[in-house]
Amino acid sequence: MEKYLNIDHVSIEFPTANGPFKALDNVSLKIDKGEFVSIIGHSGCGKSTVMNIVGGLYQATEGGVILEGREVNEPGPDRAIVFQNHSLFPWLTAYENVDLAVKSVFKGKKSTKEMKEWVDHNIALVHMSHAKNKLPAEISGGMKQRIGIARALAMEPKVLLMDEPFGALDALTRAHLQDSLMEIQTELNNTVIMITHDVDEAVLLSDKIVMMTNGPAASIGEVMHVDLERPRKRLYLSDDPKYNHFRSEVIHFLHERHAKKVA
Amino acid sequence: MIGFTWFVPLVKLVSGESPRVQLAEFGKMVGVPAVAFILFLGLWHIGAAKVVTSLGQVPGPVQVYEQAGGLIDEHYQEREKAQAFLERQEKRNAEKLAKNPDAKVKIRPYTGKETYFDQILTSLFTVFIGFLIASIIAIPAGIVSGLSDTLYSALNPLIQIFKPVSPLAWLPIVTMVVSATYVTADPMFSKSFITSAITVTLCSLWPTLINTAVGVSSIDRDLINVGRVLRLNYFTTVFKIVIPSSIPMIFTGLRISLGIGWMVLIAAEMLAQNPGLGKFVWDEFQNGSSSSLGRIMVAVLTIGILGFMLDRIMLVMQKAFSYDKNAVVR
Ligand SMILES: Nc1ncnc2c1ncn2[C@@H]1O[C@H](COP(=O)(O)OP(=O)(O)OP(=O)(O)O)[C@@H](O)[C@H]1O
Ligand SMILES: [Mg+2]
Fold first, then answer.
1. Is A157 touching ligand 1 by the criterion CB < 6 Å?
2. Which of A14, A25, A84, A164 for mutating ligand 1's site (highest number of atoms within 8 Å of CB)?
3. Could you tell me where the DSSP H helices lie in B163-220?
């Protein structure tokens, strides 16, 4: 059977001043519907590039991405993106930011009232109803990222793409957002690709961890299934031998088998 | 915020907030500029007395003040004359109609000479029109060329070449072109007005164009990508993303443009004989009476103060339209 999302033998070359630069070589990955996949790897290996190809922002030089049997090669709301730096429009309030997305995706499909409710629903989902009329500059980094997630979820994407969504946040805020994300995931069961640097985050959230080799011409090194029971509670997991096993597997991959050469 | 910052410590002082600190603040904001201003007046007074021209002594602050008063008086006298004229005309017509209800009555406008205030209004109107045309051209052109690298590299050399051209160089060309193309039996605007306004346009176009293009081309890539994910079309992208995020830069450009426009206008009016402040200065210079230099000095101050006010208005608009309320703009 065809997988829900199929990243099929993708390679990409960037034209640079010193000739073409091959960032990805033959990346293949199959993802099931409702699966939560993390991509982990050293900085600069090409994680964002993979995501941008799935998101349609970049075009693969070879190979392609197939979603529900159809090739995708341009951006669209069925592959919503949560950017690392929230990327909210600074001149719009939290509500208006989500509203802009909802209006452009559901125009003609939902009534004005339904759209309004849908915006409010998604803002409530990320626990931001109390600050929905504030401008991005008036809320904290974690809150901005919540709104960014609400905006992406509000597009009802087939695949939710997140590029280091919590990378810019402090550890505590990050933990809060991870918990929120797990809670949302239990409810909606989205298909998610998340890029991360954080081993704990990857093990805690994912069904599958994709470990990438170092660039240039990076590809997928190993794929690990994380079959930990859900719901997962970070408090109990730290004593769970299975959890620690997954953790150490990833760490071994990153720091032993594919340690970053220090230049 | 708009040149009234000195007000803040005063209010705080009245509301009983740490009087000593507020007094010091107030002193810094009002005291220092006031002392500087008085010093300036003093130096002017002493310096002016030392220079004697063919039109007499260079006027000091006192003479200039007197001349300003004179110009204001002339304005009111002229207005009274106009009022009297209109009343006479009305009375005459009423009498005529009383004798013969079918009589044709003539209503003529009063054609007295322009007062100083009329000239100020003419100047403001001319600069406004010139600036408006410039903005209408420069903002869209800036947006389009900011979005397209090709167009930007096509326009850039032209912009760089035309940007430094002095209004005095444009004026003869504009004058000739206007004379050749603007031929109507009943012109709504005088040629001198159109020439001056277009010269303002030609010189004040560039800062807005350049700043808009730079603002547009430096939009955060991620914001554009959000628009791409949402599949916004070109126009929606421009209106929902591009314009709002480059508003601060657009206004920076507009402010510089208006400043340049105002400066250029005076020169343009002198040569084009548009009845505004520029023409006033020129006429006074040609006049060469003993009061001329004083009157010109009044014009200099007026031009300065109005330019300052125009800039403040733009600043207020810039702040009102900018999403980043914390940005320091001055
Ligand atoms: N538009 C581009 N043009 C040229 N080279 C690019 C471009 N985008 C990415 N690259 C190169 O491709 C490689 C992978 O970049 P990418 O941003 O995907 O890395 P990453 O794994 O996301 O890194 P990080 O963890 O630091 O975000 C890097 O060497 C980068 O310099
Ligand atoms: Mg990246």
1. no
2. A14
3. 167-181, 191-217
